[in-house]
Amino acid sequence: MKKASEILLIVALILAIGLGVHYLVNHYGYTSYEWTVLINYDKYQLVGNSTLSGYVKASGFISVYIMTPGNFEKMKEGRQFSYYRAWEHVREVSFNGIKIPWGDYVLVVKNEEKSMQLISVEVVDRR
Prior knowledge:
Blueprint: H1 2-27, E1 28-38, E2 41-46, E3 50-67, H2 69-76, E4 85-100, E5 105-111, E6 117-126
Antiparallel strand pairs: 1-6, 2-5, 3-4, 3-5, 3-6
């Protein structure tokens, strides 16, 4: 009888840990990129109706935009585009507590220089 209760306790503990991990993954998105090569654009998916915190650092000048995927495609094609928030021609951006509207949004890092550069990005996107 004692053996069965121990097995039941272990199964309950594993289930509780699994549910906790599932909750954290669904409610706290975390993405970290360390010094990757930025040739033209890098795009990071954001969670709609969430709060964005993090930073972007680069070895050259970049522009950072929060926009819809449709506007990202317009930007890549060289057409007129709009954005929710932007930091243009900077080397470093820190953001803390930026409210992302409900919907599909991306964080876009655009290389503003001809020479190859590196970026370091950390994005924490919380519901």
